[in-house]
Amino acid sequence: MGSVNNTIPVIQFAGYKKSGKTSFIKKIVSELSGEGYRIGVIKHHGHGGAPDITEPEHTDTAQFQNEGAYMTAVEGEGVLLLKVNGNGGTIPLEQIVSMYQQMPLDLILVEGYKKGPYSKFLIARNEQELKLLLGVCENVIGVIDCKAEESSRLISFGFNQADEFTKYLKEEFLKRR
After folding, report:
1. In what order do the strands lie in the sheet with 10-15?
2. Interaxial angle between packed helices 21-34 and 162-169, expressed in degrees from 0 to 180 and rounded to the nearest 10
3. CA distance 114 to 155
4. Any alpha helices (H) in 2-67, and if so which ranges?
5. Which are the contacts of 54, defined by CB distance < 8 A and separation ≥ 6?
6. For residue 25, how many other CB atoms are within 10 A of its CB?
7. CA distances from 81 to 39, 61, 68, 69, 78 (A)
């Protein structure tokens, strides 16, 4: 586990705000990390504006950023903080995943990015949400927490079946690694 590999599986979770994406992903991360897997998570900040991450102005990396550095990183004792300033432009998910692919991860989980190109599970609270999501999302392989008719052709898990979902991930995406 954990060797550098540029073919790390990527699984996306798409759903509307407050659908439970973060809670479900937290359960999966906790379980897989507890078993020794290295899990990377990418979260789309879909609330408008830049993420609220304040760095003290006196740090070296803040000074580099203030001078116009596109990308800065600081590492210490195994902790890496990376900041990319896209100057108001969107940084494509594929570029972020490419950076993650350089790390010793076993699995990359993505929260959000409905139009992202990776295998995707939809988290829907009801049939109407599921229909809307199916209209905008591609590469959908499953649904979580919705028993709608549209989900009958998809792999389906309940919101409280994170353990079963984790077993599925291990069989389908981690067993080959």
Report:
1. 39-43, 107-111, 10-15, 119-123, 140-144, 155-157
2. 60
3. 18
4. 21-34, 60-66
5. none
6. 20
7. 16, 10, 18, 15, 10
CA 7 to chain centre: 16
What is the rounded CA–CA span in Å between residue 15 and residue 122? 6
Which amino acid belongs to residue 176?
A: R
Distance from the first to the final alpha carbon of the chain: 8
pLDDT of residue 55: 75
Going by their DSSP bridges, the two strands 79-84 and 140-144 should be labelled as: unpaired
- Mind listing the pLDDT tens digit for each residue in 69-115? 999 999 999 999 898 988 778 899 999 999 999 999 999 999 999 99
User: What pTM, to 2 d.p., does this model score?
Assistant: 0.89
* DSSP H helical ranges for 67-126: 93-100
Query: Cα 139–141–142 angle (5° rounding)?
Result: 135
Percent over 70 (pLDDT), the chain: 92
- In the chain, helix, strand, coil percent, each to 5? 30, 25, 45
Q: Could you give the angle at the alpha carbon of 58 between the alpha carbons of 56 and 59, nearest 5°?
A: 80
